[in-house]
Model the fold of this input.
Amino acid sequence: MDHGLRRPHVVDLADRRALVRWRPADPDVLAEAERLKDAALLDFGLTDSAVASWLYAKCHHQIATTAIETAAVVSSGDGSCLLIYNPDFFVGIGLGGVKFVLFHEARHLVHRHLFADAELRADPVFTVAAEVAINHVVMVRLKRAELPLLRGERVGIDPRTVHADYVADVARQGLTALDYAEFVRTDLGVYAELKRMRNPPVPTPVCLHLFDGAVPVDQETIDAVSSSVLLNSLLGARRGHTGAESELLDLMDRTDGSSERASRIWGSLGAGALRGRTARTGKVDWWQRWLVDVLASKLRAGERLVYPKKRGAVLAALGLDPLLSRSGPERDKVLVIAYDTSGSMPYRVIEWLTELVGEIDRVQAHWLSFDAVVMPFKPGERVLGGGGTSFQAVVDYVEGRTVVAGQRFEEKPDAVVVLTDGCAPHVTPAEPDKWIWLITEGGDDWPDAHTPQMDCHRVRVPERTSTR
Ligand SMILES: [Zn+2]
Done:
């Protein structure tokens, strides 16, 4: 947060073992810092911030280290993010301070996702503007009148102090300044106003990770993690999470329309639906966005995300730029798609799934149709359905217990997608976290309420656009 030192780091900030080894803090301090961190994240999840909650859920490693002085979210070089924090710092600022800092850091990542323009980022005034906008938002959302205090000193840039300096500077030029509320209304508005100053503020002290090169952050990882976080928050809002909804509406009001990139990101997320508007992209539906995100997390290769191999229409529509495919020595991932033929199943969904799977790098797909029995098929083949449905038949086959057409399924799947109306006796697979249920309209989405709960989403069948 208030860390403005530009010295080289004592250890590689992406090296988790080195971070842990570096001059470990006192065990009591470590335990207390971890407790504060967990308590803060729990509050985010319950009430304070859906965005921050999702972001830290995506930081698979959260490491206390004295190798940095404050806290930062960095990319760990494998496509995922890492939270690193100084335990003495966390204990020093207490729970209120920890929540402030973690919310601040989460917001930074989203901010950097929305405003990635190199020209903006090269301007030190933009750095101060980001701190002002972010701290203002954190104070409002966490209902805080003050910045966190560390040994009696304020941590970070106080938006009100910056505003007072701005008012004085602009007045000296004989110009009219905005009042505080107008000044902080949007993220880029703060920047525009600071640019009117004859002597704009210099960015010290500021956040550790805002100096390019100070901590490992790559735009590719920021974009992948942030879009997933925004998507999940939007899905939460659509399911009736009012905290997520107000947070996103506020974030949109502060950023949408302010830059071409930010507008494109919001548009491609279909976030306009939250405001009661029609999404600008009519082609991609919520369940499709959801499935891409769930698959991305299940098909992680070790700690490496599996990225799309080329810019596919579907993924581009999701606002994801083509990402590097990270090939490694790992085996291909195994994906099973099981398609219930007992009811009236939408063939266009299968077509879309086929296209999607074709875009994912290093994945071996197995297609099954099933009613009371399982029948493997290849995409494009006509699949005929019979009567009765048995999910257990799919589970038994996928788990290698049954022989179909003289063959046993020998692979160990990383993900199993079941497309069904859900109407059949419920099942509990051996590895429920690998199962993804897509429930057709009017169907029964029992896997959502099952114990253990499984990933489940309703499918809306796209309208027919051609009559071949
Ligand atoms: Zn910052």
Notes: The chain has a mean pLDDT of 80. The radius of gyration is 25 Å. The chain has two domains: 1-280, 282-459. The longest helix spans residues 87-114.
